[in-house]
Amino acid sequence: MIELDQVGKRYPASRGSGVLDALKSVTLSIPDGEFAVVTGHSGAGKSTLLKLIAGIELPTSGTVRVDGQDLARSPRALPFLRRKIGLIFQDHKLLHDRTVFDNVQLPLDITGFPPREAARRVRAALDKVGLLSRERERPVTLSGGEQQRLCIARAIVHRPSLLLVDEPTANLDLDYAQEIVDILRSFHQVGVTVVVSTHDLVSLRTAGPRVIALSHGMLATESPA
User: Fold this and answer.
1) How far is CA 95 from each of CA 49, 92, 218, rounded to the nearest angstrom?
2) Which candidate, 108, 84, 74, 79, places its Cα nearest to that of 32?
3) Which pLDDT does position 125 carry in this prediction?
4) In this structure, is residue 105 part of a structural domain?
5) pLDDT reading at 225 higher than 60
6) What are the b/e assignments for 79-114, b being 16+ CB within 10 Å?
7) Model confidence, pTM
8) Beta bridge pairs of residue 85
9) CA gap 196, 175 in Å, rounded
10) Separation of alpha carbons 176 and 36, rounded Å
11) Residue 68 is part of a domain; what is its CATH number?
12) 217 within some domain
């Protein structure tokens, strides 16, 4: 369960003095196993919301709870919580000097997985996103849609219960966008909680998610797709 109670996030203004309120008094809950889409105009606070849920940012005011943990008051719990979360942000942050296989294996190396089990999980993740035959190639040889699928494989290789995805279909043509949505829906169908921020409700409508609309940092509406 994800719970936000009167959450605000404030940043210093990029120019001059003053502050920018990225989120203002946002209260909402996302039950386990839900597929939720966060939408809104550029600068509405979508990416900030995902970063707060992931514990990458902490709220300026209010409370963010994930699995009952108050992220601001439980800093020691954050490393363990993040092992349950898969993150996919617009900046792919792929390692272009390593192979497709090595990029996906990196999270398992960091957490100390045994090599044989890690290799099995990497190949299962690559197979899930249709990239198993490309495991020895470098990311630069992949198309934009394939790089996005590689990011999904890296995010789910440790089998998270929560997947946070920022603009997964940005800059992709309709066919590639639909492939990405189908992959996300397949994880949701096996019980993974999926939270996606996007401008592209057209592609994501097929997933049948709940829609959470933000406007100028505030919760505007919540509705079925």
Assistant:
1) 26, 9, 36
2) 84
3) 95
4) no
5) no
6) eebbeebbbbbeebebeeeeebbbbbbbbbeeeebe
7) 0.88
8) 162
9) 19
10) 21
11) 3.40.50.300
12) yes
DSSP designation for 169: T
Separation between Cα atoms, residue 150 and residue 37, nearest integer Å: 21
Residue 218 domain-assigned?
A: yes
Containing structural domain, residue 61: 1-33+40-84+195-225
pLDDT in tens, 15-55: 666 788 999 999 999 999 999 999 988 889 999 999 999 98
Residue given tokens 């933000």 in the structure block: 214
Q: Which residue type sits at 42?
A: S
In a domain, residue 79? The reply is yes
The CA distance from 39 to 33, in Å, is 19
Q: DSSP strand E in 31-132: where?
A: 35-39, 61-66, 69-70, 85-88
Between 200 and 89, residue with greater pLDDT = 89
Mean pLDDT, residues 93-119 taken together: 92
Number of independent structural domains in the chain: 1
Close Cβ partners of 202 (under 8 Å, ≥ 6 residues apart): none
Assess whether pLDDT exceeds 70 at residue 99: yes
Q: What's the confidence (pLDDT) of residue 177?
A: 83
Which range (71-80, 158-167, 182-191) has the least confidence? 71-80
Contacts of 57 (CB under 8 A, 6+ apart): 9, 48, 51
